[in-house]
Amino acid sequence: MDRPLNRLTEWMRTHPFVVDVAFAGTVFFFTVLVTAETYWASTVPAFLVGVLLTAPLAWRRRAPVPAAAVVVAAGLLELVFLPTFLAANVSALLMVYALAAYAPRWASQAGLGVGLFAALLAAVRYLAPFDDLANVLATAAAIGVSVVAAWALGNLRRARLQQLAALEERAQLLELERDQEMRLAASTERARIARELHDVVAHSLSVVIAQADGGRYAGKADPEAATGALEAIAATGRQALTDMRSLLGVLREGGAEEYAPQPDVAAIPALVDDVRASGLDVDLIIEGEPRPLPAGPQLAAYRIVQESLTNVLKHAGPASRAWVRLQWRPDALELSVLDDGRGASAAMVDSDGQGQGVLGMRERAQLHGGRLEAGPRHGGGFGVHAALPYGSRR
Q1: How far is the C-alpha of 25 from the C-alpha of 16, rounded, in Å?
Q2: In this predicted model, what pLDDT tens digit does every residue of 118-157 receive, in sequence order?
Q3: How many other C-beta atoms can be found within 10 angstroms of the C-beta atom of residue 136?
Q4: Could you read off the pLDDT of 185-240 as tens digits, one per residue?
Q5: Stretch(es) of the chain classified as CATH 3.30.565.10
């Protein structure tokens, strides 16, 4: 029983005009057709006025103000031309309800005023010639109470409709907010993956290019050096492939693979050794006692050093030297990567508005409550300075 009833309720909600037409027809049948013989003295005029009173009920929700105007006009015709009060006047109460529920506020108040005035006119028109003043006033008051009751019920309906509209709007806003949060999360994840890909690919390719150039120049005079360069290229390529697989593995669904942990501050010495093996003279300086640092800032520190050394390999020029300094300060880990190259990295920064590599490093630092500065050094070269607090402020 519940399902047919629910389907009927849903159908009525989605077809309001059909429901209103059926309702108007029902009122017309019981108040005009059934009671037609009561008005034997003026059947045709009473029938026509009854039609004008009941037909507008079909538009009581779609066009309440014009429908009410037709009902008012029919009521005036009834007062002027008909000697008997029609049962179809119940449409006036229904129209007062409709104005209060569906029409603008001014129309609702106007409907209440017109209804009360019409109650007084009807009592005077149809009772005053035959009854005393007390009964006339009592009848007018009774009709007036009915008008006020219909208007009050219409206001309750209006409040209910407004509440439902507010709930629907809130649901739509919540759905929109959820979609925006999902898009933001997806955008953030894409940016994170893009940074990781940039760091892995750019660093590995820079090392490979440096080793290939060194092996090409040394190959004629020292075959063993060329062989060492090829071995370094192969090792770097394998490591890059492993990092790529580990990174792209997070995009698979339902995978049961286990991946190696993300690099941290402890892996920076090995990173420096790899870059040093590619031919760049790099010094690593560590100051202070290491302190506990969350995994996120540790990965950020590693990637900042990696990206900075990659830029040195690409832009500092031949016979350059670099320094990596880790300072464990009381409140933050400070990183510095300096080089004495020709400053081509500064030109790279100026050419594209901070460069994607520098931008990615700055985003990493800010993500964990830190800061990063990068720019040319006085006298040549380039410098990157970053600070990552021990306690994340996310």
Answers
A1: 14
A2: 999 988 888 876 667 888 888 889 999 999 999 999 999 9
A3: 19
A4: 777 767 666 666 666 666 666 667 666 666 666 666 666 666 666 667 777 676 66
A5: 265-394
Packing angle between helix 223-248 and helix 133-219, nearest 10 degrees?
170
* pTM greater than 0.70 (yes/no): no
3-state secondary structure the chain: CHHHHHHHHHHHHHCHHHHHHHHHHHHHHHHHHCCHHHHHHHHHHHHHHHHHHHHHHHHCCCCHHHHHHHHHHHHHHHHHHCCCCCHHHHHHHHHHHHHHHHCCHHHHHHHHHHHHHHHHHHHHHHHCCCCCHHHHHHHHHHHHHHHHHHHHHHHHHHHHHHHHHHHHHHHHHHHHHHHHHHHHHHHHHHHHHHHHHHHHHHHHHHHHHHHHHHHHHHHCCCHHHHHHHHHHHHHHHHHHHHHHHHHHHHHCCCCCCCCCCCCCHHHHHHHHHHHHHCCCEEEEEEECCCCCCCHHHHHHHHHHHHHHHHHHHHHCCCCCEEEEEEEECCCEEEEEEEECCCCHHHHHHHHCCCCHHHHHHHHHHHHCCCEEEEEECCCCCEEEEEEEECCCCC
CA nearest to 95, candidates 51, 141, 147:
147
The strand order across the sheet containing 371-376 reads: 281-287, 321-328, 332-339, 382-389, 371-376
Architecture category of domain 265-394 in CATH = 2-Layer Sandwich (3.30)
What tokens does 123 get? 């009592």
